Fold each of these.
Amino acid sequence: MCQGFSARGCFAAPPSTVLLCLTLLVLTIGPVIGWRPWPQNRMNVSDYTFGDSKKFEGSSEFVKLRYHMGPVLTTNITVHTIWYGKWERNQKKIIREFINSISAVNSKQPSVSGWWRTVQLYTDQTGSNISKTVRLGEEKNDRFYSHGKSLTRLSIHSVIKSAITAKTKPLPINPRNGLYLLLTSDDVYVQDFCTSVCGFHYFTFPSLVGYTLPYAWVGNSAKLCPGQCAYPFAVPEYMGGRKPFKSPNGDVGVDGMISVIGHEMAELATNPLANAWYAGPDASFPVEIADLCEGIYGTGGGGSYTGQVLDAHDGTTYNMNGIRRKFLVQWVWNQIVNYCTGPNALDQ
Ligand SMILES: *[C@@H]1O[C@H](CO)[C@@H](O)[C@H](O)[C@H]1NC(C)=O
Ligand SMILES: *[C@@H]1O[C@H](CO)[C@@H](O)[C@H](O)[C@H]1NC(C)=O
Ligand SMILES: *[C@@H]1O[C@H](CO)[C@@H](O)[C@H](O)[C@H]1NC(C)=O
């Protein structure tokens, strides 16, 4: 649910609860836990070795992903974007192309639309699959930081409310198949950013916003914590001079955001109101389809090893093709085979 931090219950919790959450998670899902190089849970990074022993570390018979009868996004999904703060034209282009690539079924393999096929495997009560169609909706620029440069989980609701109630060109209100994506520029701090999350998703509260709208926030970490949130295009100091991958679109912060956006969109589609697809003992500790595969970008991935990815001619690293660009996006959980899958898997 929150990218980089697997339990929503750990959201706004005091440190002792967070510890409890983590303990429960580890007990609940055994070896399968998303990996990011958080400073506080640095493990021995000597596991960065290439080897078959890590094959499908993101798989476990202990993972009991369940459907909790809530709605999923089965009709054409429209993504309404709020650009909060300062965004360059080229940064917007990269992100727009990623979203447009989800339904671009003719892209070169392995493709972003191939990646979305794992998400499409999930269904609702009536047996309807997640929509294969994802398109860009309206956009709203919040250039002047309407709610400041430090946002809380609560003030995010206000940012969304401002966008849907703006006097000029408000975002459409689309609770059924709209998905609201709040993207913050590299000079904006959001509660828990960099210490435990790189993004998260939830839904707006009618009491605050007037509607229940599924939304995700993802931040550009380029200035604040690229080693955590734009990993592996940046590497934290404690990992001892390991060389970062060269990012496919020449923008470490934005290329790092792409995987987080993919993570949140996959989870929003399968668990938009936090009552559909998740693992874990109860609704306060949901572990969702992308949480289970965080840090895994290719066959053999696990721990700080990304798995087998691809090298482009220009020396950049990616694992899937969009319409024109290349992207590196984490895999998601496949409940049919019970492990993480992606379009660049070597053995499928
Ligand atoms: C990390 O691994 C090295 C070599 O295997 C070992 O000597 C060291 O004690 C380990 N450190 C931790 C914190 O586990
Ligand atoms: C819909 O979901 C079912 C169950 O997971 C799966 O077998 C089927 O292939 C899915 N259809 C599409 C078009 O993805
Ligand atoms: C949904 O998207 C498809 C394209 O994938 C389009 O043909 C169809 O008309 C759309 N349906 C609605 C209700 O917008």
Amino acid sequence: MAFDAFVVLSIGGAALLGWIAVKLARWLWLYVWLPHRLSGTRLVERYGSGGWALITGASDGLGKAFALELARLGFNLILVSRTQSKLDRLRDDLQGLGIQVRTVAADLSDTAPHTYESLAAAARDVDLSVLVNCVGATVHRRYGDVPVDTLRQLLAVNVSTTAIVTHTLLPLLLRHATSTGRRAALLNVGSIVGRFYWPGTQLYGACKAFVDHLSIPLSFEYRHQLDVLSFQPTVMATAMATGAEPAVITIPPQRAAHAALSQLGHTQASHGHWRHGLLAALLAVLPSRVRNALFLKGALAMGEVELAKCESGHVTHA
Ligand SMILES: NC(=O)c1ccc[n+]([C@@H]2O[C@H](COP(=O)([O-])OP(=O)(O)OC[C@H]3O[C@@H](n4cnc5c(N)ncnc54)[C@H](OP(=O)(O)O)[C@@H]3O)[C@@H](O)[C@H]2O)c1
């Protein structure tokens, strides 16, 4: 009897150790090996040379980092954001890389058909192989304190626009796959906030959970033509960050973009940079009550900074 129990425990222990080893190996492969090994040729071979990438929210922060990285790899670009002067500046910066750049100045919180039509019009006559839905907006506050206009704006930018831009441009991505025999790519930017319930930024979290729940099913529906990545970073040093976030988890957007592109086509969801992957793993094992208390405290502190920025006219999102 004692011997049987010993055998069962040994087999169970070995299986558990094996499972942990596999998880750890996968984590190291995704967060350390792939970003270290990314070369331009992999993405060009996978999606074709001379292809085009459309990036929303492209003139600043993470979107700009994606633009610079994809341009460096030789992709032609369609850059979308509200401010034409910022788009022009980025296009000038990209001159010399030998790529073509188109710009679309559009307010993606305006969910009227003409907004999405302007993106389709810019992409219709090119070979669109990569779509990066990067635009996003956040607010940190208790739900009742979020002004209703902000609520509408967040839903429009994060939810409606991600869904409709994807729906509008999906036929062009599939056209690329059919006409070239290669794959196309859809990279949707969510947030770690969409992976947990996040008091203090509940609406943003719900929007980003939407992005995740939209993206992963598409990776199965179109698995023969499309690589889909639901990208869920943590804090990056961009205008969206308040500066109240811990420095240890704040990374430059360039590193986040590089990591995400290295993982595209290898996995359906990731946090990008290893520091963000590690943070997500740690948060997952925290008891939910502790996690929620930490999140709320941090979010309200960020909300204070956002309000101060708003009052001084430095923020457009909140
Ligand atoms: N920063 C972070 O810590 C963090 C963490 C997790 C996830 N994310 C996600 O990462 C993505 C990028 O964030 P970010 O930090 O790079 O933001 P960011 O630095 O504030 O840049 C936002 C970009 O989007 C454009 N934009 C903003 N509102 C727009 C609108 N209504 N229509 C069209 N373009 C608009 C901005 O240009 P214009 O102002 O000229 O329009 C800018 O190019 C978002 O989806 C965000 O949720 C960010």
Amino acid sequence: MYLGKEVIHNIFWCGGMDSTYLVCKRVIIEKKPIQTYYLNFPCDGYYPPYPLGRDSREVEVKVMDKLREMIIKQFPYTKSLFPRTILVDEFPINKEVYKKLRFLHENYQYRYRPRSQELYMIQYSLDENKIFEYSLEDGMSLGVDVGYLPTAKLLKENFTEDFTISTEKILELEVFKNIYFPIFETWRKDMVEESRKYDFTNILENTWSCRWPKPNGDICSGVVDYDDENIDCSHFLYVEFDKQPQSEIEDGFVRYYKDNEYEIIKRKINYLDILND
Ligand SMILES: [Zn+2]
């Protein structure tokens, strides 16, 4: 939303590392007003016939509340910039939008399934007729072993200097016209470095990315079995496993590489440790 000089940054937030970094970049570093949004319904494509729809929604909402509280306490000037997250209820998908996404899926390997949270983000941005920021980060282009997403490749190939997606080569990409990708050229290593510089590494350490936490609050094993399909959980996505001892990862110490250099942070492996901190 652009109001004269004052820009309110609309951000899709989920309490994970990338979107939380974007929130911190806007309110802590740039001191800009934001509005955060959370799609509060099964929207990740894992619902019937995949009955594993993001079990972690309730956890994510609580983690976001906690992170917001921590940010405002630590950086009091952010209070007026940072209203509570808008929890969005399910809404219908326009047929034409779905068709374009299916086209991108079938012709350019866009997403594993055409129906996904990105479809809902796109539809929501079009319905609201506002610019939304989506925190895809650059490390995804590292390769399939570290959670490479075909989506990232397609978008990367059509990425513009203005952090938008060009429709020059593929007209169907126009569905992204209201979505910006402000950290698509930022690596997680860069995020950790910036957070040290501005003193919010503790915020990144309290982000949560596991979609299928165990009943005791621990992160899942990393892979969820359903029928013949193994679904990778995103909680350790973009970690270069071969470069880091497994035991270190299990304790939550995560190295974020950029080439051979890395930054390490200790992420929480039980969400109750975040909520009760
Ligand atoms: Zn997990």
Amino acid sequence: MTPPTGAVQITCPDCRDTLVPGRVDHSSLLTNGPMIVEHVPAFVCPQCGYSAIPAQTWEVLEQLAAGCAAPVRFATVPVYDLSELPDAGIQIPRRPQAT
Ligand SMILES: [Zn+2]
């Protein structure tokens, strides 16, 4: 698959720069766990890194989420839970110190 091309000009909603064809890594949380897709064709802001994935590429991601292709590898991902922290003034919980 090649990066998206064409005469369409998309402007970054954050910094107003023009997005250019590129690749991004995309992650989503499915009902059966996380899915990571690397090198997804997208339009990327050269200024701030904002990315927009074209509709036809979303269709490919949906097919992958439905299990239409075998993954190239599996990864273990860390999971955190911030439900015990107050909404404001959040501090990252530190690892317990070894004694
Ligand atoms: Zn930008």
